[in-house]
Amino acid sequence: TSPRLRAVLDDIPTYKPGKSAETGGPVGYKLSSNENPYPPLPGVLESVTAAACSFNRYPDMACTGLMSELSERFGVPQSHLATGTGSVGVAQQLLQATSGPGDEVIYAWRSFEAYPIITRISGATSVQVPLTPGDVHDLDAMADAITDRTRLIFVCNPNNPTGTVVRREELERFLDRVPDDVLVVVDEAYREFIRDAQVPDGVELYRRRPNVCVLRTFSKAYGLAGLRVGFAIAHEPVAAALRKTAVPFGVSQLAQEAAIASLRAEDELLGRVGSLVCERTRVVEALRAQGWTVPETQANFLWLRLGERTMDFAAACEQAGVVVRPFPGEGVRVTIGEAEANDILMKVTEVFPKER
Ligand code: PMP
């Protein structure tokens, strides 16, 4: 017999990372994990190299330098900040801080696939509220789903994998309906890619609402996916609880220094984001001109609802040299990458049948 393990782990959904570009062909572009295609900035690389010289030491557990930079950048007290091993690490800390057996966690579905996993691990129950037919959060239905067991609600804005957003008025109306003792996590992993002025900045919501927590990451716009650093902005009791539930030393010194250097190089990094947003516009317009239905995306990826043809489409992409992210039976999420990769994608979509 093996050691007794928690029964909740038995049917836990497994996190499937986006496949890497092992196409066997001459080119392989990875458009499967919403990464930033630009290589690290030389200055950021230098700060990481310098930090690497002392990796025999533990990192600064309090992330002092990074906290101070973030505090200044967002105009929030350091006591309202918490860091973690990627924003998925912070999300797990949020679950640990708020939810356990008997508690309920509400989120839209489909959305970020880590939500059901970390909810299950916490012992709490997932309450998944289907997206609207237009692939947008159904905030009315989410508010209707609140019970006295609800402890946490995720609002993924923009939503992964659809790229769709919820706008100011509807989000404010929703937040008005959430009881004060329920934490609303606005997951803004793709915040920097938003160009729709009607989408509220979660940080502004947090300033007026003690039960709002904003989740951000250095993985996407800042290009530090491999270094694992994310953070939350929340009022003091929540931020303090996040620091308690963090894995000790979970953010390496390399990650801390890279994050600080990235904040200081923000203009250049956000310029790259601007170029990716232009690519997004180019790809979405081309696909629509080809006859595809593409939901309005404000992230660095787009969503094609291919249903049963999902795996065929993913295989066609792979054959052509780009790896995308299929959700079997539902659709394909394609990251906006470098122009050459996007061009290959558009060649596939041009010939792939639009309807059955
Ligand atoms: N939130 C959302 C919505 C995401 O899509 C992702 C990454 N796929 C994350 C959080 C986690 O990113 P990271 O842990 O790299 O910060």
From TrEMBL:
Q: Which GO terms describe its molecular function?
A: histidinol-phosphate transaminase activity
Question: Which species is listed as the source?
Answer: Streptomyces chiangmaiensis
Q: Where is the Aminotransferase class I/classII large domain?
A: 30-346
Cofactors (names):
pyridoxal 5'-phosphate
Can you tell which superkingdom this protein's organism belongs to?
A: Bacteria
Function, as annotated, reads:
Aminotransferase that catalyzes the conversion of aromatic amino acids and 2-oxoglutarate into corresponding aromatic oxo acids and L-glutamate.
Residues modified as N6-(pyridoxal phosphate)lysine: 220
Does the keyword section mention Iron-sulfur?
Answer: no
Q: Which reaction does it catalyse?
A: an aromatic L-alpha-amino acid + 2-oxoglutarate = an aromatic oxo-acid + L-glutamate
Subunit structure, interactors included: Homodimer.
Q: What is its EC number?
A: 2.6.1.57
Q: What InterPro entries does the record tag this protein with? A: Aminotrans_II_pyridoxalP_BS, Aminotransferase_I/II_large, ArAT, HisP_aminotrans, HistidinolP_aminotransfase, PyrdxlP-dep_Trfase, PyrdxlP-dep_Trfase_major, PyrdxlP-dep_Trfase_small
Keyword check for Cell inner membrane: no
The Swiss-Prot or TrEMBL record describes its family as follows: Belongs to the class-II pyridoxal-phosphate-dependent aminotransferase family.
In terms of CDD domains, this protein maps to: AAT_like
Keywords (alphabetical) are:
Aminotransferase, Pyridoxal phosphate, Transferase
Under the heading NCBIfam families, the entry gives: hisC (TIGR01141), PRK03321.1 (NF002878)
Designated name of the protein: Aromatic amino acid aminotransferase
